[in-house]
Design a protein that fits this description.
9-stranded parallel beta sheet; globular; alpha/beta; 9 strands; 15 helices; TIM Barrel; 443 residues
């Protein structure tokens, strides 16, 4: 009887095991080709075969912003006043640019008189009476440039602002008592440390970018340079930090305010910033500017260098020598910095009669130093057209003065380092001399 029961138990176990195997095999069977019973949502959610996934194209990268596109544009510009931009002669200049090897214009929108040359909607422009009707149709001016594929730069003179100084004496550089200080030309300035002045100029800059300018350029970002400097008083600047620190803070503010604006930024600076080590008592050092803008634009006009510069009796008569030296020195100082160098060159008669050859020599020198573009200056906007209608010179891969200038830079840097080390030793020696002796402990 026991054998019969054991046999029955084994038979039941075998049946259960076989049933389980059949069930597992059913789960491993491929799904039927008939999908009519699968809901549509389930079909859509089904994963695609790996081969089909591999065939899909990757998503397209986002389109580059206007600013990204412009960053690699080599600008070759002419300067144009707001007065010229409002008359028919502007069209003649634009026509010349469009048929030349130039591709850009720098247009004053707020010049060193403090006047804003277009109908600005910035409240402080109206409050201070800054608007002067010069550019009658700024939108039309910008459209004409866009149609001809000409890059546009809005130039803003910042701290030399006689109009603002008159309207807001509380922001003006003072000359003692209640007097407004003026330079040798009779022009008034506003305090470079004033946040109100900063905000005013940045409001104009943002408006210019919104109107369609490709770039905003800041000029006269410095302390005054001439006149009775000892009589100057400042309503905000307390002389508690170096002047160059105030200018650095301004450009830091420019960078912060313009980050959200789809336009380039640049700064005009003194030509000597490419070679001197201090701020010349005006607050300008190229290294303080170069981390906050896209382009630095030193004004390296040969006529503006003193007699004896580079051993030259009249630097204006040696455009290649002066421009190459200044450009290469500037490029060395910009190594590792955000900004590229785009110098201002000379197309006006001062110190020498500048002709087509002298202008071409400047462009050749700038390109030999590997700067990124250039701008030509003539205060009356009367240019030597013939210099720009022919193909511009290409950079010389082996400039004849390169080794000489680089060696001079090396010697200068070595001398400066030696001087700094000597100063450190002297300070340490003075500290040691004046340090009080510790009393020895009595035993």
């Amino acid at each position: 009887m026991k054998n019969v029961v054991a046999l029955a138990v084994r038979t039941a176990m075998l049946i259960a095991i076989c049933s389980g195997l059949v069930s597992c095999q059913d789960e491993l069977k491929p799904a039927s080709n008939n999908t009519s019973s699968i809901p549509a949502a389930s079909k859509a959610a089904s994963p695609e075969p790996p081969a089909q996934q591999a065939q899909q194209a990757p998503p397209a990268p986002p389109a580059p912003s206007k600013r990204q596109q412009l960053l690699n544009t080599e600008v070759r510009a002419l300067y144009i006043t707001s007065w010229t931009a409002g008359i028919d002669r502007f069209k003649q200049l634009i026509d010349m640019v469009s048929h030349s090897y130039l591709n850009a214009v720098v247009i004053d929108i707020k010049d060193s008189s403090g006047k804003v040359g277009y109908d600005s909607k910035v409240p402080m422009v109206a409050q201070t009476g800054a608007y002067q009707r010069r550019i009658r149709d700024l939108d039309g001016v910008l459209k004409l440039c866009r149609d001809k594929k000409i890059y546009t730069i809005a130039r803003i003179a910042v701290f030399q602002d006689p109009n603002l100084a008159k309207a807001r004496p509380d922001l003006a550089v003072g000359g003692g008592g209640k007097m407004i200080w003026r330079d040798r030309k009779g022009l008034a300035w506003v305090d470079p440390a004033s946040k109100v002045v900063w905000e005013y100029n940045l409001a104009i800059a943002k408006e210019a970018a919104a109107k369609g300018f490709d770039e905003v350029q800041f000029d006269y970002v410095r302390f005054p340079t001439d006149g009775k400097l000892k009589t100057m008083t400042y309503p905000v600047y307390k002389r508690d930090v170096p002047k160059h620190e105030i200018i650095r803070r301004f450009f830091q503010y420019v960078d912060q305010q313009m980050k959200s604006v789809d336009a380039m930024t640049s700064a005009d600076i003194f030509g000597l910033t490419t070679m001197v080590d201090d701020d010349m008592n005006i607050g300008q050092r190229i290294q303080d500017v170069a981390d906050y803008v896209d382009f630095v634009c030193p004004m390296i006009y040969p006529s503006h260098y003193p007699h004896g510069h580079l051993g030259l009796k009249n630097p204006a008569e040696h455009p290649y020598r002066v421009i190459y030296d200044a450009s290469l020195r500037g490029m060395k100082r910009l190594e590792g910095k955000r900004a590229r160098m785009r110098p201002w060159l000379q197309d006006f008669k001062l110190g020498a009669a500048y002709d087509k050859k002298m202008i071409i020599d400047q462009i050749q020198a700038a390109r030999d130093a590997k700067v990124f573009g250039f701008s030509m200056w003539n205060a009356r906007n009367v240019y030597t057209n013939a210099a720009y209608l022919e193909k511009l010179p290409e950079a010389n891969p082996t400039p004849p003065l390169r080794a000489q200038v680089l060696e001079d830079i090396r010697r200068r840097e070595a001398a400066l380092l030696a001087m700094q080390n000597r100063s450190t030793v002297i300070r340490q020696e003075k500290t040691s001399i004046h340090r009080p002796r510790r009393k020895s402990k009595e035993s």
